[in-house]
Amino acid sequence: MSQTIGRTRLAYSRAWHHVSLAAPTTPSLGRLASRIAILLMGKHKPIWDPSTDCGDYVVATGCNDVLVTGKKKEQKMYYKRTTRPGVMKSLSMESMIRKWGGGEVLKRAVRGMLPKNRLRDKRLDRLKVFEGEAHPYRTNLIKFEGRIRQVEPEVKTEALKQTSI
């Protein structure tokens, strides 16, 4: 019998969550980004520790329908600094969605919600964003819209294909 309590390999296993931005009940960008950041950090797990990376994967689909309130699409600016002094490029949210899609806006919002440490880039790599509803991670998903997906057990075909002599 195992005497290990808490931090086992099973506790550190990563689940796959699905977030659809095309759903009518999707919250606004900031609220959604904070929920995704909690899943990426693993704060929803009882073994959470700030110095360990125990978060899950998140697949966000329908990012072209990102919801923002007010006039943020026209007024919010994203800034990029170059190595030259006095040169700073700015881009509005509307033009960023046109140029790179809503997934980049969501990634930048989640990046701002994650703690600024060595684990931030690793956590952000586990966020997979897609503009449409199609994505290649359908078999990995365990949680879909907050509900656990029912997985049907596979039937072994070798046992069914018994040949008689």
How is this fold's topology laid out?
Layout: E1 16-20, H1 29-41, E2 57-61, H2 72-75, E3 77-81, E4 88-92, H3 93-100, H4 102-113, H5 120-125, E5 127-129, E6 143-144, E7 147-148, H6 157-160
Parallel strand pairs: 1-2, 1-6, 2-5
Antiparallel strand pairs: 3-4, 6-7
Helix pairs in contact: 1-4, 3-4
Describe this structure in words.
The chain has 165 residues and is an alpha/beta fold. The chain is 28% helix and 16% strand. It contains six helices and seven strands. The strands form two sheets. It has a five-stranded mixed β-sheet. It has a two-stranded antiparallel sheet with strand order 3-4. Strand 6 (143-144) and strand 7 form a beta hairpin. Helix 3 crosses helix 4.
Q: What does the largest sheet look like?
A: 5 strands, mixed
DSSP summary: helix tally: 6
As laid out across the biggest beta sheet, the strand order is 5-2-1-6-7
Determine the structural class based on helices, strands and strand pairing.
alpha/beta
Ranges with pLDDT <50 over ≥5 residues? none
Order of helices and strands: EHEHEEHHHEEEH
Distance from first to last alpha carbon:
45 Å
Number of E-state strands: 7
Shape: globular
Strand content: 15-25%
Q: What is the mean predicted local confidence, pLDDT?
A: 85
- Helix coverage percent of residues? 25-40%
The radius of gyration computed from the alpha-carbon positions, rounded to a whole number of angstroms, is 21 Å
